[in-house]
Design a protein that fits this description.
Helices cover 0% and strands 39% of the residues. A hairpin with a 4-residue loop joins strand 31 and strand 32.
């Protein structure tokens, strides 16, 4: 890529690390599950794209990357700043169009360019550390088409400054959205990736793509349903580089090492419609609070996590019970990531990671399996398994037992400190 901009990145091999990809299917959960919103503040930046048809991009909000150097991925398009490639449609959308054309006789890294498209970024107009980054998008389709909504860190080169991919799709996998982070030691094919697949192509309609980014945790959502989470424990000892300002990028690439290249089945032009992009601020009052002691109350039942019979025996199976001020419900969020009561630690049985693993009370042993975080969404997540503390069978009654389960956004997985 022939540019001095800090937006240089190489992401051609994101899917080669297959073991890092966690794919789930569409889940029958509410589109907007209950969340603890304390850490997500008011909207700090937005573009609703409500300008008249034919209006260019608002350059007080977006600027353009321009060129056809391959962008580190052997892509085939030339990015322009023309309204032929990025324009308001007069119906409340930004339209980014990838075309099979070359009206300016543009030259690309492989010769005369075959395609044009657009890549918009906020590097010169807006950056933010932490918060909610959300866009409602109808993606394009077709072999070799690669739409993305993503972010890059400021103040350094790639990958040391970090990358957060809110949404990526490749045309040969029309039903699947990918969310990824890249950083030093986990870039390119080593990016930490999650995905979610729907029963129909994403290009059939608008969908909401979102990350909630907090200190030490980033969480991805498709249409309000969580599908991926990353924290420092997922990096295998590599450096966490997500504590400084990032800027946003919207683009549609054509071809590249990951998506492959257009073929006879690919139709042009292809359009990505963006209904809005909204950024909300982060407030330090939410998420996993500072270390201290409190009760942990369930959103569904209103009852608190409890040690049965106030008996701290090894392996006691944790439950929910009417909230009270006893030591059996006094949980300390320790600085090492453990959650402690009565001299012992919350623990998944036998350091298990599977759905259905019981959540017990055992001696604190330094095992990473005993690390938990309570995030701004109200999920109490076991970091070793990346699964949520869940009330078994959504039992709201006294004595309901706890286990680990995929984070679904359901009320029986939502908790708050009181």
């Amino acid at each position: 890529m022939f540019t001095a901009r800090p937006s240089l990145r190489f992401r051609p091999l994101v899917l080669l690390a297959v073991a890092l990809v966690a794919t789930t299917t569409a889940l029958a959960v509410p589109a907007h599950p209950d969340r603890a919103e304390a850490a997500i503040g008011p909207i700090s930046w937005q573009d609703e794209f409500n300008s008249p048809a034919g209006t260019p991009v608002d350059q007080n909000k977006w600027r353009f990357d321009i060129g056809g150097g391959g962008w580190g991925n052997n892509e085939r398009q030339y990015y322009t700043n023309s309204t032929s490639n990025a324009v308001h449609d007069g119906q409340g959308n930004l339209v980014i169009t990838a075309r099979r054309d070359n009206p300016g006789n543009y030259q690309c890294h492989y010769g005369r360019c075959e395609y044009t498209s657009a890549r918009l970024l906020t590097a010169a107009t807006f950056t933010q550390t932490y918060g909610r980054f959300e866009a409602r998008i109808k993606i394009p389709r077709g072999q070799g088409i690669w739409p993305a909504f993503w972010m890059l860190g400021t103040g350094g080169g790639w990958p040391d400054a970090g990358e957060i991919d809110v949404m990526e799709n490749i045309g040969r996998e029309p039903n699947t959205v990918y969310g990824t982070v890249h950083g030093p030691g986990y870039s390119g094919g080593g990016g930490i990736t999650g995905s979610r697949s729907l029963s129909s192509p994403l290009a059939d309609g608008f969908h909401t793509y979102q990350v909630d980014w907090e200190p030490n945790v980033i969480t991805w959502y498709l249409d309000g349903v969580q599908f991926h989470r990353v924290d420092p424990a997922r990096l295998g000892g590599s450096r966490w580089v997500f504590d400084h300002p990032f800027f946003m990028i919207l683009n549609v690439a054509v071809g590249g090492n990951w998506p492959g290249y257009p073929d006879g089945s690919t139709q042009f032009p292809q359009q990505m419609l963006v209904d809005y992009v909204r950024v909300s601020s982060y407030t330090s009052g939410g998420g996993n609070p500072t270390p201290g002691t409190s009760r942990i109350r369930g959103a569904q039942s209103g009852r608190c996590i409890d040690i049965p019979s106030a008996n701290p025996v090894e392996g006691a199976k944790l439950q929910i019970w009417d909230c009270n001020t006893s030591a059996a419900q006094s949980w300390t969020f320790a600085s090492d990531g453990t959650i402690r009561a009565m001299g012992k630690c919350m623990d998944p049985a036998w350091a298990g990671t599977a759905n259905g693993t019981e959540v017990n009370l055992v001696s604190c042993n330094g095992n990473t399996a005993q690390r938990f975080t309570l995030n701004a969404a109200g999920d109490l997540v076991n970091l070793n398994s990346n699964r949520c503390v869940d009330v078994r069978e959504a039992n709201p009654n006294n004595g309901g037992k706890l286990h680990l389960w995929d984070c679904l956004g359901a009320a029986n997985q939502k908790w708050s400190r009181i």
